[in-house]
Structure formats: structure tokens, C-alpha cells
Amino acid sequence: MAQGIEAVAAAVIGSGVPAARRGVVRRALMSALDDVLDAGTGIVVGPRGSGKTTVLAQWATACGLPVVWARCTRAGISVRSGARAVTLTPTEVSGVLRSCAGPTLLVLDDVHELLGAGAAAELEQLLLTSAPSVHVVMGTRRQPTFTLARSEIDPPVVVTGADLRMRTWEVDRLFRDVYGHPLTTDDVETLTHETEGWAAAVHLFQRATDGLLPADRRRAVRSMRGDPYYARDYLVGEVLAELDRPLVELLHRGSVFDELTADRCDALTRAIGGADDAPPATRLLRELECTWSLASTEDGVHYRLPRVLHQHLRAAHAEHLGASARVWHDRAQAVLADEPPPRTAAGRAATWAEFDGIEELVDGHEWVGLVRAALRRDPAAQAEQARRLGGTGGALAEGLCLLLAGRQHEAAAPLRRAAADPDGPRPLVLGAALAEAALAGGRLGAVLRTIDRVQAEADRQGLTWLARLAHGLIVGLDGTGAARAQSRAFAADRQSDHDAWGSALILTWSALAGLSLGAAEPDAWEELVRRWQALDAAVPAAWARACYAVTAAAQQLPDAGQDARVAEAVARAAGVPGALAYAYAALAATDPEDGGELAALAESSGLETGVDMRPVRAVGLCGGRAPVRLTHARASAVPTPTGPRVVPGTAGTEDRAPELQVRCLGEFRVAVDGSAVDLSGVRPRARSALRMLALHAGRPVHREQLAEALWSELDPRAAMHNLHVSISAVRRALEPQVPTRSSRLVVRDGEAYTLVLRPGSGCDVDELERAVRGSARRRAAQEWDAAADELGRVLDLYGGDLLPEDGPAEWVVGPRARLRLMVADAAADLAQLELDRGRPEQAIAAAARSIELDECRDHAWRLLVAAYTASGDAAAAHRATSGYRAMLDALGIPTVAPVPALAPSADVTAGRGTPPRRSPRTSPVSPGTWS
Questions:
Q1: pLDDT of 47-91, one tens digit each?
Q2: Does the pTM exceed 0.70?
Q3: Where is pLDDT greater, at 500 or 897?
Q4: DSSP letter at 274?
Q5: What is the DSSP letter of 292?
Q6: CA 777 to CA 756: how far, in whole Å?
Q7: Fewer beta carbons under 10 A from the terminal one: N or C of the chain?
Q8: Where are the alpha helices (DSSP H) in 130-279?
Q9: Contact 395, 425 (CB under 8 A)
Q10: What's the burial of 132, exposed, middle or buried (CB within 10 Å: 0-12/13-18/19+)?
Q11: Residue whose C-alpha is closest to residue 651's, from 516, 551, 541, 747
């Protein structure tokens, strides 16, 4: 049998995975299932027709792991082995998995069939005995409870039926991008509402209306509130056909109620006979709950059916009763009249145009006046008044006012209080939850899922304005060019409905997402300035103007300096300290004389205010490097201008992290708490990922940047999976005793990873760059001895080329050349200082080092000749002159005059002459030029 299992294992990998059906990729669900790679186990549980198999197939295809796809039946677990199907027991499947080499994904679809056959214990044993390298994800109509109860099995990732419901933004994309029949926003909302996002119903409607003219399709959407004719055959032939007759009759009779309860059914009719001591309807409803996935209940008393199925049952039963239907309906109304009045949810449908009347949604509206005032000027002062106001409205107003001021750290707490208020008005609670999700940030998938839940609940509550706002935020969340284009189209649709506030909010969110990715689009921000001014919202207009100044400076537009000064004045006049920090950053980039001081002012202002400066750095301002992806309006710590760099968001955890010593120059070495880390067991690409993080130690590196640099030959999802596995391997190597998800050294913050440097840690690249900056400050203060010491430290730290292990990799070539030129420049500066101080031997060594690093450095050659001449070694000076001329000949530069020897600098030795003009030097952040 062992040989048979091995034969099956050899043929089963990759066989039987269903072809991905035509449809939209469910981004929120894909992100949720990515966590299976850490948790080890996942469950996708939902009713028939909810798209479980499609979601599993999409993720299995994209996750990058070898896949064993299995379909559960009452006879066992069926797998494809080559061209034939083989039915195995769970124990035999475990044997197949043990024969698989390396990480493997096991997909068990239709697990409810196996559970119904009494094989739960065997399935549980399969999970318990699976190797750590085996990831298991199950699709089922009913959730197995043992995976949550057994301590030996890690808590699984759970995707529920509510998660599987298609959202308005997914239905919109489905009809526009897949079916080629774009719908209006109103029609998308109607279709999603009437089908409740049930994937089967959405697909059946498309099939029924495929080929219709746009006007006829719109008419079909508007008629959906009646009998769902498009799904009748499916509901009768497949959904209801699997139920026993008593259950079907109960559903038909109870369809007159929006929610089924045993008391209602028994009061309506006594036709069903009892069983045991339980009332007949109670027994049937319990049976329905246990055996059928389409009846949902939150309290075990009230049962709801999908809207499409409920409408079909009601229409079919009315047709069956004929003239008696009215009598049946009246009896149902009498039953409901005898019940206590239900609690109704607060809120009503609200359109975006109702912003000015939004206070009607809540009891009292003083908080609305505070927010309106904060939109015009000095939001921090309005936050103080809102804090004294109290209540849900006061907490929401306080959070929004602080957010407008840029005090993002402080805004999180009141928004969280408002979002968690169980007695607060639903519009306010959901609005606070939406703002908190945008502010709190985190992983992009987690933010997407939170906003998605707010959108779904707002739609269910009839809060159209809030639901559409959440829809628009989801569309623009990625920040990519395509997402920004879709946001503009969505906002234009809202603007055409006179929804100016919603349109401006969505465009601002989208533009900020793009800025966070490094997209400098001044035109978009200029348009937003006009929009906010037209709404008499001076504070958002000040933010838009500050972002315009930042992007104009990044693009080096001709009037960028003037734009930055205007942005500073506007932010100051509006009382917006966060926007003022952005304006300072733009001023720093456009003022060559005071740029350093202004950049420090921007950093300190951002740190004091609590505003996130990473969008500014993403476009290269304030010392920014590669673009860093973040979630908009993120409240996170801003690194201080000096001292060890710490990843944003780890302020409370850095003291618990081990000390890390990283060496990237000459060769790569890493030590944790003084002990060298053995990386021999880590795969080459994973080591490259660690080296790339080490190059930016203390700074976040976006995961897409890592994936693109290391796995550019793979499709994005496969590359992202490989990155995920590699990061786990790196974490295990650095902290073998710590679970990978709890790593203190490689921390994930939003969509970026950071190699954390706590106080006491060090990285030679970081130390070298600080020494270069220190030498510049010492020379500016004419502290020549201290400047020479700093430059000598630069040369001592430079043990060789940056990360030679990575060869000509594109991601390291530029930084390697930049550092090499930076050190060559520092060596030439040291040579000049030593020559000025009358130390020709030290000047000779420094000049020779500069030429070794950059043989085309004109000034270093001249310094070498001058130092040899000053030392009295005429022969060496002649050899240096010949080498200099050979270099010029190689570059095609004619030499018709003797090479002059440099005199000491007049700054140090007055009266001894002035040296010839030097070539322009490269800055510490320049990619390097010939000098």
C-alpha cells in the first residue's frame, strides 16, 4: 500500500484544481486567505452558490505552493491522480501528504459531505498529523467545530458566508470588466441589494439578461423586487430539491414572514404534527439549521433566508393559494400584531446631497456644527470643544477635528470610542469605524476588510451616503494608476448627482494613496484645492495645497518655491499644523540655502503634531528614499532626524527587541545580541531579501518593492507568496525561539517590512552616512580636527563594496555606486584637510584611497600630486602626474599644460594662496556623478 500511496502522491500534485472561472478576483478574500500561510489552516464556510470553490481555486492557483486538490464525498476524499479519480480515506490522504517534498497546500472542498458521513474524527486526525509544511484550507457549507476546540491545532483563518457575499464594488467590476455590461451606480446597488451579494443569484441574473439592450437591462434591474424569475429553475431544481417535503412546506408557509420562528409558524398553522416533546416547527427549524446552509440565525430563534429565495417562496406560495393568499396574509399580520414591538435600528436612507442636513440622522446636532467650523479654520480648537461635548457625536467630532488638524495619534482614541459605542446612532458608529480604519492603517488587506464590512453594514442599514463613501474608498485604496482612474470615474458619477462632498472625499483619498506610492501628480492636487474651496472647506483646501506644493517640489516645477511659500501661508492662516509640516518639506526641497534647516523643521513639526510624513518621503522629500506604501491618514510614529532609525508603529516594542549588528560593506554579516547568525540554512533568495532589508535597516521597504526586485520573473501573486515564505525563513534564522508572526526584528507595518534597529543596534551603512553628514557639519563650523576624525571614520567603516554577494542585482547597483562615490569624495576631502594641516603623508594615503575608489576623480589626482610634492618626493609626484595624464587620455581629455599642484586651502592657511576651483561634489543622497 505504501508504494501505491507514493504513486498517487507523484501524480496528485496540481491535478484536479478547477480552472479559475471568469470573474473578479475577491481581493479581500485573497488577502484573508494569505494568512493561511502563517496560521496553517483555513476554513471557507458558506451556503450553496456563494462561490466557495471559485475563491479556493483562485487562491490555490495564485498562492505559489504545490496544490493537492481534493473533493470530499460521503465515500471518502476524492483526488485526481493523473487522468483518473481516486477515493482515499483521511488516513491515506495523510500518507500522500507525507510523501510530498516541501511545502504543500491541501484543499479539501465540500467538507460538509465528509462530516455528514461521520468522518469528523478522521479529518481531525488528518489535521493533527500533518507536517508543519502542509497548509490545509477547507471549503464547507457548515463549519466544523473541532478545529477551534483542539489546542494542538492553531486557530484557523475563517472566511464566513457574510464575507463571501459580493459587495457593490465587486458587482460593479464584475459587470464592467468581466461581463462587459457596465451598470449605473444605482443599478449596481439595486442588484447587490436584491441578491444580497449571493454569487449564484448575481450570475443567474447576468445569464438571464445577457444580450439585452442597456435600457432593457436597466428595466430588468428595476423589476427585481418581485418574483426572481431569473433564478426560479435553480432554486426549484437544486436548492429546494435537497430538502424533505415537510421542510419545503414549512418554508412555503413561513415565507409570509421576513423572519421565521417556531412560535410564528405554530401560531400560523397547526397542520404539522409534533415529534417528541418539541413543537413541530421547532424540530423542523433545528433540522434546517443543522442540515441546510441557506437558513441563517444569530440567536437560534429567528431564521432568515436569502432574499432571492424568500421572494421566490412567497411568490410561489401565493400562486399556489390563489384567492386564499389574502386570508393567509391577514392571519400572518394578526400573529405579528400579538408580538411585542421589535427594536428598530436607528438611521434611514441618506443621500450624499444631504450632507448639510445630516444632523437629522441623529438626536441633537451640536457636533455637526463643530465639524463644520473645523472644516473652515483651526480644527484643533474645535476638538477641545467636542471633547467637552461627550457622547458618540462628541467623540466622532473630536476624532474628525484632530484628524483635520493632522494630530493623527490623538484622533485614534476618540474615533475608537465612537465606533465601539453599542448605544450610539448607527450612522455615527459606522462613520467612526470607517474613519478609524483609514486612520489606524495596518495591512492593506485588513484595512480593505474593515472598510468592506462598514460598507456592507451601511448598505444594510439604508445609509446610502456612507455606503457609497466606503465604496469609493475601496476603489481608490490601492493607489495605483488604474485605481486612481477608477476613483476619478466614480467621483465623476457622484458629482453628476450633485454629491460634491463625497466626490471630493474620494478624490482626496485616492490622491493620497497615489502620493503614498510615490506618484507626484500636482494637477490632481490643484483640482482638489479648487473643489474644497468651492465647498467653503478651507482646512481640506490647505491640506490639498500643501500636497500640491510637495508634488510640485518633487517634480521640480518652475514655480515650486513660490507654491511652497503659498502653502505655508495658507496652512498657517487656516490653523492646520499638519499641513504646515508638509509645506515646510516642500520649502526645504526648493530652498538650496536653508534646505537642511527647513527639512529638520518639517521633521520636528511632523513629530510634534503627530502627522505622518511618509507620503512626503515617498516622493523623495525630507530624505526620502524608495517609495513606501502606507495606508492613508496613518497614525504612526515619525522617525527622529538623528539617532537609530526605528520602524513606525514599533514605539512600544523596540525595547523588547534584541540588539542587532548589521554589516553590509565588504561582506554581509549579521549578529543578534552579539552572536553571529548562521544563514547557511536559508535559501539564496531569502538571504537576498534579508540583505535588501539590511540595506534599508530601520526604514520600511514596501513588499511590492521586495517582490519585484527578487522575483520579477514571476507573476505578482507567486512573487508575493515567495516573499512571504522567505520572510518567515529570515525570521526563524534571526529569532529561532520566537514564532515568526511575533518577530521583533523583522516587523511588518502595513504593506512594508522593516529590519528593526533598537537603541544599541547598528548598521555600518547607516553609521557611514551619519559620519559623512557629521563631517559636513564640522567643516561648516570650521572644526577642522573633528571634521578630519569624522572623515577618517568614513574610510574605516567602508570595508568594501556594498553587498558584494548580490553581484549586479539591479536593486543594489545604484546604492553601491552611490556609496562608493560618497566614500571617494570623503577621502578627497580628508586629503585636502590633511594637506592643509601640513600632514602630506596622511594626505597621500587619503588621496590614493579616493583614486582607488574612483580613478576618474580629477581633484583627488591633483591632491595626490600636491601631497607628494609637499613631502619632497619628486619621483612619486612625477609618477602621480603620469597616472593623472593617462587617466585624462583614457577619457579623451587633452593635456597641453603641466598639471598644477594644489596649494593648501586658504580657509585654513591664510596667505598661502587659493586652490583652483574644485569640481562639484556629490551629496550623500545623490546617485553620483563624475568629479
A1: 888 999 999 998 888 887 888 888 888 888 888 776 678 888 888
A2: no
A3: 500
A4: P
A5: -
A6: 27
A7: N
A8: 146-149, 161-164, 168-173, 185-195, 199-209, 214-222, 232-234, 245-254, 262-268
A9: no
A10: exposed
A11: 747
